[in-house]
Amino acid sequence: MGDDSEWMKLPVDQKCEHKLWKARLSGYEEALKIFQKIKDEKSPEWSKFLGLIKKLVTDSNAVVQLKGLEAALVYVENAHVAGKTTGEVVSGVVSKVFNQPKAKAKELGIEICLMYIEIEKGEAVQEELLKGLDNKNPKIVVACIETLRKALSEFGSKIILLKPIIKVLPKLFESREKAVRDEAKLIAVEIYRWIRDALRPPLQNINSVQLKELEEEWVKLPTGAPKPSRFLRSQQELEAKLEQQQSAGGDAEGGGDDGDEVPQIDAYELLEAVEILSKLPKDFYDKIEAKKWQERKEALEAVEVLVKNPKLEAGDYADLVKALKKVVGKDTNVMLVALAAKCLTGLAVGLRKKFGQYAGHVVPTILEKFKEKKPQVVQALQEAIDAIFLTTTLQNISEDVLAVMDNKNPTIKQQTSLFIARSFRHCTASTLPKSLLKPFCAALLKHINDSAPEVRDAAFEALGTALKVVGEKAVNPFLADVDKLKLDKIKECSEKVELVHGKKAGLAADKKESKPVPGRTATSGAAGDKDTKDISAPKPGPLKKAPTTKAGGPPKKGKPAAPGSTGSAGTKNKKGPETKEIVEPELSIEVCEEKASAVLPATCIQLLDSSNWKERLACMEEFQKAVELMDRTEMPCQALVRMLAKKPGWKETNFQVMQMKLHIVALIAQKGNFSKTSAQIVLDGLVDKIGDVKCGNNAKEAMTAIAEACMLPWTAEQVMSMAFSQKNPKNQSETLNWLSNAIKEFGFSGLNVKAFISNVKTALAATNPAVRTSAITLLGVMYLYVGPSLRMFFEDEKPALLSQIDAEFEKMQGQSPPAPTRGISKHSISGTDEGEDGDEPDEVGTDVVDLLPRTEISDKITSELVSKISDKNWKIRKEGLDEVAGIINEAKFIQPNIGELPTALKGRLNDSNKILVQQTLNILQQLAVAMGPNIKQHVKNLGIPIITVLGDSKNNVRAAALATVNAWAEQTGMKEWLEGEDLSEELKKENPFLRQELLGWLAEKLPTLRSTPTDLILCVPHLYSCLEDRNGDVRKKAQDALPFFMMHLGYEKMAKATGKLKPTSKDQVLAMLEKAKANMPAKPAASAKASSKPMGGSAPAKFQPSSAPVEDSVSSTVEPKPDPKKAKALGVSSKVKSAQGKKVPSKTSLKEDEDKSGPIFIVVPNGKEQRMKDEKGLKVLKWNFTTPRDEYIEQLKTQMSSCVAKWLQDEMFHSDFQHHNKALAVMVDHLESEKEGVIGCLDLILKWLTLRFFDTNTSVLMKALEYLKLLFTLLSEEEYHLTENEASSFIPYLILKVGEPKDVIRKDVRAILNRMCLVYPASKMFPFIMEGTKSKNSKQRAECLEELGCLVESYGMNVCQPTPGKALKEIAIHIGDRDNAVRNAALNTIVTVYNVHGDQVFKLIGTLSEKDMSMLEERIKRSAKRPSAAPVKQVEEKPPRTQSINSNANMLRKGPAEDMSSKLNQARSMSGHPEAAQIVRREFQLDLDEIENDNGTVRCEMPELVQHKLDDIFEPVLIPEPKIRAVSPHFDDMHSNTASTINFIISQVASGDINTSIQALTQIDEVLRQEDKAEAMSGHIDQFLIATFMQLRLIYNTHMADEKLEKDEIIKLYSCIIGNMISLFQIESLAREASTGVLKDLMHGLITLMLDSRIEDLEEGQQVIRSVNLLVVKVLEKSDQTNILSALLVLLQDSLLATASSPKFSELVMKCLWRMVRLLPDTINSINLDRILLDIHIFMKVFPKEKLKQCKSEFPIRTLKTLLHTLCKLKGPKILDHLTMIDNKNESELEAHLCRMMKHSMDQTGSKSDKETEKGASRIDEKSSKAKVNDFLAEIFKKIGSKENTKEGLAELYEYKKKYSDADIEPFLKNSSQFFQSYVERGLRVIEMEREGKGRIPASTGISPQTEVSCMPAPTSTVSSIGNTNGEEVGPSVYLERLKILRQRCGLDNTKDERPPLTSLLSKPAVPPVASSTDMLHSKLSQLRESREQHQHSDLDSNQTHSSGSVTTSSSSTANIDDLKKRLERIKSSRK
């Protein structure tokens, strides 16, 4: 229990993860307490425990697990973040809790699952539980089923999805485990409780016994509808409210709920869809045409079997339906007709709504086939047509059905009526609107008078059904002329009818009748316009408003009951609370006089017909006064107007009296209850006077008053017919003028267009021009309301007249109708009128179109024409389409029946010839206009395929398809499109074009709809997938459409639909939904009002392409940001737009307009980074195009909106170039003052400028280039560095401009490119410019080549990408170019390279044609420069373009980059290798050029130079190097795919091409040197080591043998490999990852290399071998000790077995083993002894003692003994416990040997064994007579070999030698390396000097050993700042020391008394050797480079810590100091 105290102190989370169960138990208990204490569910505390929850439930200890489950339950119940853990916790519960024996655990597990469901994670839980059902452990399966059952029982079938459970039920019933079967039975009973018989079909195939048991259980269930007993969090509040209500007032609501719970699941939904099309017999289509009926029967029977599947998969059944239809229609064998009908039934039942598109084709055929008498045929046909009816709507097939009603055959009539009756039963009051009922009733009324009784009975039944469905009120108007007998018969039938929807429908209708809105009596003229709208297909004839309506409800539209009665019959009793529609009987003149005398003065009545006009005038004045004073209720209007009409009446000759009379009429109309009866008395007179010059205005006033009293539609009709029955043209023209104004004042609603049109036509034909002009003006006003369709009526007018009409329409275009000012107040309370107006448009619209005479064209659509359209030859197809277009054009307006045309055109929509596709689309557009609203029935079979075309890759085809879809939708409304699954199927297709176009279309259409079909929800899952589409446009469109979907479906439904998404997606989508919720527009009841006010409420949007809506679409695509002025001009329309939720700016206020004072660029923190992330993550379009498309401009505009001032953005995106110039001027002005803003928006500014490059206007281009020059100058001053993103989206477009014809532009572009090199590395510019050389524009090619030459000249060969070879080969291609300028440029560029690089150019450019080569040689000769001139000279001769800050930049490249970057990198710069192959990912590229171009300003943080008094120091000082940010700048954004990048680079390490390999190694080295980046290599170590030893093998076997290869290349490769390895084995964590096998191969490779005599012969060979020596030590020390020991043993075994192996090899392996033995005391605890002993056992098995003794050398046996001896000594007797891995211990002598040793060591003292060890390791061959001395010496050498005590050891050795001058230390040194020996000698010499004071050696100047050890920078960072491990400043002496070591190493012994370098190899595990060895390596590389470049530094390089090989040293120290002082000054000045 000693540990208790330990874990008690730990915090909760650590306790919970402790390995002791008690600790965990305590942790869980504490966690439980914490969870219970946290009150706030959103507390951040919860998040801390997120990771624990899974551990709580999956604990391995049962007791602890129980406590964990309790805690988890509390957590899930209370933490808002718990949902995130659903998947992992539930899967943990399923796998680790449900299999527990304890019932309590299982209960808690189930509770946790149910709690997750309660917190809205039902779907995830269900998914895990269903996975659990596949578990092999039956306990788990049973628990999962039980959990599902409980969940269903508690939460109900709305939350728990039954379909997936039902799917697995049959499998569960087949389980071998009884427990599983029993549980399955229980859940089946539970499911049945919820869905009743829908469960039967899926279970029909289970074992009959089980089924019987189930049936028995099912019978016992209560019949009531079940209710959930537990609710989701979101429902709980609601539930609480419900309970309160119920307790307060019964459960009315509850009852409502039940209703919709029960029939919720349809068995069809639970079934799997079966695909049958592929299973049709191959020869089906041949057989069905066969002559023998038996063959046809076989074909049909095959289909019949297939269609018996209850649910069929959607597909293209068109051909199959066509074949079956043909059999039904044409086959002579009635048996086959019945069979085909059965097949159709099966198809309709299996496909349901998906069959709807074929219904229209089949229905007429089936109905006509009812002429058959055979009962089985009739029955089959009835079943077929009934099944088909259910797949479509009555609306869609009404045309076909009505057409058949006129058939002469009584059976057909009878069956059609019966079919109508059956169909009506499926309807409700709302789905059987008046518009649909009317034509059916008319047809059926003919049938009730038919001679055949069966026809009459059928008609009665149909009418009776209609009566039952919609109620008497709606049907009675149509039955007005039916005699009583027949009426009774109809009612009788109605009572017998059983409706499909139960009694509900009837009741609903009756209830509704009491409400004002949907009432449907024709007598009252009310059309339930809400209902009509709902099914969006009203097709009424001329509609008129009934004169007056009640104030409460909206005004009703009525139609005259019979055409004869001019409106009067249609206007009887309208009851309303205030205003009654005044219906007056006509009174006789006597009654009138009587009533008038009661209210008028007697004199007045007498003088009415006086012959003196003055008396008449006086009488009128009195009359007027009396009327003014009269009360409305008392005013007998009819009597008064009769008095006025009394002689002389309207023939009054005095105009004053007449004016007064007319004024009084107006007064009476305004003040009294004025009826139509009264109006008819006066109207004739008014029309007569309307043309009168003096009285005309009064007449018009009176008419207007009457119109207000009796409604305009009625008044207008009366007035028009009266005016045109006269001959007076003046009256006619003035009436038309009055009407024009009246329409503007009253609005257009209810006007009878048809009557007007005929009158207007008469007027247009009038001879009097005034009448014609008035008529045209009236048409203009009508056009405002009716839209372009008005023109259709006048197509046949004379061209001159037509042009006048068009001119008038043109004037009206774009205007919106004024809001009605009259006719509202009196008849409705505050705006109910508008509510109705919203509906009106559609009615008027359909009305107008319905009036057109339509032509039947089906007879012209012949089968020849159809086959032409489907011909193989496209020209013939085109002819066919031309014909169709001709037919439609000719007919103008056509009837909906167009035969086979739809199928033919559908085929052409996916024609391979895009021209035909476009032609087809144009035809379909024509078709829509020609057919009008009747095109509805073709939406499914032709409209949806048009939508498919929106996915076409060609822009113009998509545009045509969109126009067509819009033309269709204009005619059909949106309901047809949204119904069914078709639209969602389209959206499901993963075609980005289709998705973005379709979503864009929906976003445009949805906001205009009041309601949508429920099927819209089917699109939502696909909408969500679009939100995460790879294509940025699709995502944007989906986001735009989101608010409109939500507007119709509501947030809840949308949020619920996210349930099926992956958790990550779900979170994103929910966030977007929240955002959309905020932007959600109001439901368009509001938008209809908004638009109806300005439009007078009567112009349907669809008849208004010229007004608001079109402007909408135009302005939002072409010019989405109108400038403020325009927005104001748009006025109304922009208001409408905003109402519809379009993103179009509403009016910009003046204030905004003027406010241009603020900053133009707004700094958005991290804005640029976010944009780059978006582009990288493909959330937005990548800026990459040949010409900018709209979506790019839109995207840029959106991105700019947040960070560019609004007014500037308007200028920038204006369509006029002058605005662009203004914008550029503003940007130039603000450049200096807003540096930060400019840099923050730089990516956007550059992108915008690329758009300007595509403008044709030169002034803009010049201005843009001017701006760019200033911009890049600013950026270089600010030391800014262009990001990759900015460069790649700008440079390619800038380079396009380098080929401009104008010199001045080219010059500017070159200047900009020049400046860009200051902010973007030249080597990265190179590929862009290289790409530019591939252009077709020769000027561009030439300029780009020249630019490349300049780059090479200024920056050396290193800029050439991907490699100089490749780059030069590409440049050389252009020597043969056609264009002289290009040839010259290419030659000049190569000459430039030649000047830098000498003859090697010829090797790099590869083979050229003779002609090209001679041109090149000639040019090189001509160029005066000497080819061998080293780049240093070049620098002197030609100042580089980028002036380097460093005055002595005498390297190949200018900037200090090279000097500062990692030394290994020079390996590649020396040989002119590029920085990295282009394919290498950025993370691992060394951006030398970036550093170079920074000129040491940006990326270099210069450390403060330590100021020392230089005079005190006699030795030369080396300045510490500046700290560089060692990594390439892109390391920060390491991608997730680092691993794949590393894999790629590692694969290049083993490349056969030396350069590739070096390059890869360089990059890996850079990674290894960054401490923070080195982890990236983790997991790749073995892979890297394998690549390395493969490369070593390749060098050994191939490269070394290759005569052609320069050996210094190989040395360089070796240096890189060794440097890399040393870096790697410096990092212990990585070194330990190396596995045994890999280490064995690596050691093999390294030892082979050490023994390679060919290396020794090379001048640098010794250096390499020394480095390898050092590396081996590192490998031995840092690797996993077990792995390396094991590897060495196996390697020794292999080398002894191999006959070819040299004895030297084995010897070196053994030396390594000795080294390991020496390390054993420190490492014994970390070693897996069992494995080592197993290896030794195998070794001894292969080499028994006898065999070992036969070896030439005694070393192997001694090595083995030493190893075992050391192990025994360290482990003691315990070692015998470690033989566990050895199966048969007797196979070798290991065990015996160990026992012997143990025994021996018990007898002996330890000294012997100590000595033994030393003996093995140090090769002391003498017998140990001087045991003590040796021990003492061994101790000393041990100290020297250790890091800490090396000084002490040397001092002791010195003392010892002084004491015993004859002591022989030779044996200790003999076996060690040369380095170790010289190190010891040097050390002794130094001590000697110190002691005897022969001179001051800086090493001893007060620097502790600690400092000395760390003064070498370890190679883990490219250039570490030199300081000791504690980060203190280090004195210059350290640097001096270091310099000396470096010099020593490079063979430059400074002076005799200098101390040699501190390098020891196999003896000393200290840091110095490692560091120094890498330095050695680098200096080596640097030397190499120097020799290659054949030029020498005359001076130490200021930025390099190592010295170059050829440094000349002065002999005196003072010279050195002066030298250093100068250098220091120079550095300081250059850095300022």
**Ranges with pLDDT <50 over ≥5 residues?**
250-263, 503-580, 825-847, 1086-1154, 1425-1480, 1494-1502, 1521-1536, 1805-1825, 1894-1929, 1951-1977, 1987-2012
The assigned structural class equals mainly alpha
Q: Numbering strands along the chain, what is their spatial order in the largest sheet? A: 1-2
Rounded to the nearest angstrom, the distance between the terminal CA atoms is: 68 Å
The mean pLDDT is 75
The tally of strands reads 4
- Beta-strand share of residues: under 5%
Overall morphology: elongated
Main sheet makeup: 2 strands, antiparallel
Total of helices = 104
Helix content: 55-70%
Question: Roughly how many Å is the radius of gyration?
Answer: 49 Å
Structure characterization notes:
The chain is an all-alpha fold. It contains 104 helices and four strands. The strands form two sheets. It has a two-stranded antiparallel ribbon. The protein has a two-stranded antiparallel sheet with strand order 3-4. The longest helix is centred in the N-terminal third of the chain and has 30 residues, at 103-132.
Briefly say what this structure is.
The protein is mostly helical. The protein has 104 helices and four strands. 63% of the residues lie in helices and 0% in strands.
Features:
two-stranded antiparallel ribbon, mainly alpha, elongated, 104 helices, 4 strands, single chain, 2032 residues, two-stranded antiparallel sheet, 0% strand
Topology of helices and strands:
Elements: H1 4-8, H2 12-16, H3 21-37, H4 45-48, H5 53-57, H6 62-78, H7 86-97, H8 103-132, H9 138-155, H10 162-173, H11 178-195, H12 208-220, H13 233-249, H14 252-261, H15 267-270, H16 284-287, H17 293-307, H18 318-330, H19 334-351, H20 356-369, H21 375-389, H22 394-405, H23 410-426, H24 434-447, H25 453-470, H26 472-475, H27 484-496, H28 504-514, H29 529-534, E1 544-545, E2 557-558, H30 589-599, H31 602-607, H32 613-629, H33 637-645, H34 655-671, H35 676-689, H36 696-710, H37 712-725, H38 729-746, H39 753-764, H40 769-786, H41 799-812, H42 832-837, H43 840-850, H44 863-869, H45 874-891, H46 901-909, H47 914-931, H48 939-949, H49 955-972, H50 975-978, H51 982-988, H52 992-1005, H53 1020-1027, H54 1032-1056, H55 1063-1079, H56 1085-1095, H57 1108-1117, H58 1124-1130, H59 1132-1139, H60 1150-1154, H61 1167-1176, H62 1190-1201, H63 1206-1212, H64 1217-1231, H65 1235-1240, H66 1242-1253, H67 1258-1277, H68 1284-1288, H69 1291-1296, H70 1303-1316, H71 1322-1332, H72 1338-1355, H73 1364-1373, H74 1380-1397, H75 1400-1405, H76 1410-1422, H77 1431-1437, H78 1457-1460, ...
